[in-house]
Amino acid sequence: MLSGLPPQPKDENVLIGFDKADDAGVYRLRDDLAIVQTVDFFTPIVDDPFVYGQIAALNSINDVWAMAGTPLTALAITCFPKNGVDPAILGEIMRGGQQTLNKYGVTLIGGHSVDSEQIMFGYSVTGVIDPAKIASNAGARPGDMIILTKPIGTGVISTGIKFGKASDETVTASVDTMMTPGKFAAEAMREFEVKGATDVTGFALIGHAWEMAKASEVTIEIEASAVPLIEGALELAAAGMLTSGDKTNREYVGADIEIDESVDKNLVKLLFDPQTAGGMLISVPSTRADDLLARLRKSYPGAQVVGQVTARRGHSINVR
Fold it and tell me: CA dist 138 to 1, 195, 208, 279, 309, Å?
């Protein structure tokens, strides 16, 4: 849709726009300071409104952390019905969100609400970054290793919750995963001077890896068996607990992917499974991968090297 917009006047201070499908935009204010801006909101994915607010806040903040930035302020975006739903539920959603924002040093400074039968909630977040230390989709280089900080599977688990198929243990594991912030990954990326990164959200692991490969003009090889999974997610995928994103994410990547026939078809479903508040996908030179992985595992015990970057050949994504 955005590709059909007319060209904008060129602004040399726009360091990251929407042309490379990055997690946030970056606008330079001066040589050593830029602002990072993002927006994200979605429908409820858990039953508890307080937890829903918490996850929505982290999901939005993560976009700033994915650029290696520091989030500062937030504006709430709320779609909620005037009638038919207890307004106290919205109060709990807002309370959970604000508590999480404040926990990570982000101040709520306003927002906007719309009367809507479909509940949706999220935030527009603004942060700051040193223009010389931006991590973006275009920063992956041949020879890099690809690290994923958190396990995947929140989409199928959310569907499993709706149909009463997800166990309590699986739901707890999914919520714990979503509630783990990207803050520590951002700190590690700054420390290791990472230039290529994104967070794994609606376009799934494959979709976001594909965006990185396209923006960087490389091929990313994913080792499917190395991808960490949330407990119970594979079984739910096998039971058909898929979101509509399974189809749309496959359409998004199209034919620009090669998947080895040996890869479990249910595991492939999880690779296309849209995530909420997912982990960071980090591209780092192979000489520094082990050290960065050790640093990340202090905060993300399930972090794994899940692939590597090669010179562009054939497809943008190869899965084996």
Answer: 21, 8, 12, 18, 12
